[in-house]
Amino acid sequence: MIFRKLNKLLFLLVSFICFSINHVYAQNIAFQFYDQTFDIKIDSASNIPYNDSLTQESVKKFYNAASKQDFQPLINTLISYKNKEKLNDWFYYQLIRKTVQQISPKELNYERYTLYKWFFLLKSGYDTRLAVGKNQLLFYVWSDDDISDIPFYKDGKKQLVCLNFHDYPNADYQKDKLYPVDIALPETNVMFSYKVTQIPDFKPENYQDKIFQFDYKEVSYHFNVKLNNEVQNLFKNYPVVDFESYFNIPLSRETYQSLIPYLKKNLIGLSQKKGVDYLMRFTRNAFLYESDQENFGKEKRLSPEQTLISNYSDCDDRVALFFYLVKEIYNLPMIAILYPTHITMAVNFDKALGKPIIYKGQNYYVCEPTPQIKDFKIGHQSPKLINENYQIVYQYLPSRIKN
Question: Which CATH fold would you assign to the domain 204-396?
Answer without folding.
Answer: C8orf32 fold (3.10.620)
